[in-house]
Amino acid sequence: MSRVDLGSRAASVRFEDVSKRYGKSVNAVDGVSLQVEAGELVTLLGPSGCGKTTTLRMIAGLEMATTGRILIGGVDVTTLPATDRDVTMVFQSYALFPHMTVEQNVAYGLLASKVTKPEARERALAGLELVGLDGYGARLPSELSGGQQQRVAVARALVLQPQVLLFDEPLSNLDAKLRRQVRDDIRDIQLRLGLTVIYVTHDQEEALAVSDRIIVMNDAVIAQIGRPRELYEEPASAFVADFIGEANLLDATIERVIDGRASVRLATIGLDLAARGLSAGPARIAIRPGRVSLQDAGTDGTLDGVVEKSTYVGSHMEYRVRTEVGTLFVVSDNVDRVVATGEATGIAFAQSGPVLLPS
Questions:
Q1: How confident is the model over 129-139, as pLDDT tens digits?
Q2: CA–CA distance from 316 to each of 73, 175, 303, 327 (Å)?
Q3: Which residues does 286 contact at the CB level (< 8 Å), separation at least 6?
């Protein structure tokens, strides 16, 4: 068993008003400022074309910023090429050499960096042990599963002991069960070694599961930065509410605001919500499907509704319910009491469910 220390050399990452333009009209990243602390796992999350991968590539030095500054460990690296940055990236494609053994693949970057063969071998074996592939060194990549190949790619990055480890959609080639397993492996290794990790994905569940903080991007800018629970429960906009999990977005009216609390009218229902800086007048609220429940029709304090669609998906029921404020998506854990399509129902909201959207 290898005793080589692959401990962290984690560094912070800072963007200061960074933009990336292609030609005169295409802003891939537009005035982004962010701070990733040493030892933190931060996810860049957003739809295709939002700028998250370009941001990652600018950290790696694979793209150069048009304006602004990029600092790693407090050092300005804005104009440095990728070879002069102590950063390693794990790509969506594993990029393993098919003719090399697993051990040779992991040691390749070390040998290219002029590390001696004995030390490279020791560190490669330590890396494979760290990702749970001890004893797999003599195999070829073709003899491994997709999840095992991704772990080899992670080990190859870890043995270089970079200041910052970057992941670009690392799990997109895996099936759902393997994605959960490998994302847990990555998070476990990051926590054990205290690594600085910046992780790009478009998968909201993946981001919520692995991140210390999430940076949500849209149209080349940052839409919101926060911890997973904060983003899920206190979205700053309709875009964030709808992108981080599903949300019912409804029009409502703020009747009055007293001491930071808003009295909100949603059709026949009155709600007491955090005002979030809003004043009396029209407003929008977001309500997660799991915080809406179906009650007997005519129950006091509920909205009247009619079930338009009832779907059994194994662990829960999904409903589409037509109401006077719009069609609501409802998720219920009660698979024994099914409300049928066409049936009248009452709609109730969990006390901590609805949230006012400040923008």
A1: 988 899 999 99
A2: 46, 21, 22, 19
A3: 235, 238, 241, 242, 247, 248, 249, 250, 354, 355, 357
297-349 pLDDT per residue, tens: 989 889 999 999 999 999 999 999 999 999 999 999 999 989 999 999 999 99
Q: Is residue 17 classed as helix, strand or coil in its secondary structure?
A: strand
| Percentage of the residues of the chain whose pLDDT score is greater than 70 | 97
Predicted confidence (pLDDT) per residue in 151-192, tens digit: 899 999 999 989 999 999 888 877 888 888 888 888 988 998
As a whole number, mean pLDDT of residues 60-66 equals: 96
- In our burial notation (b when 16+ CB lie closer than 10 A, e otherwise), range 299-335 reads eeebbbbebeebeeeeeebebbbebebeebbbbbeee
CB contact set of 93 (below 8 Å; sequence gap of 6+): 173
Per the CB < 8 A criterion, the answer to whether 330 and 345 are in contact is: no
How many angstroms separate the CA atoms of 190 and 37, rounded?
13
Give the pTM.
Answer: 0.89
List the 75-76 sheet strands across, edge first. Answer: 26-36, 13-22, 67-72, 75-76
DSSP per position, 167-208? EESTTTTS-HHHHHHHHHHHHHHHHHHT--EEEEES-HHHHH
Give the integer Cα–Cα distance in Å for 59 and 57.
5
Count, in order, helices (H) and strands (E) of the chain. 8, 20
Amino acid at position 220, single letter: A
Could you give the residue ranges of the DSSP H alpha helices within the chain? 52-60, 102-112, 117-130, 146-158, 176-193, 204-210, 228-233, 238-243
Asked if 284 contacts 302 with a C-beta cutoff of 8 angstroms, the reply is no
Q: Which amino acid appears at position 256 of this protein?
A: R
3-state helix, strand, coil in the chain (%, to 5): 25, 35, 40
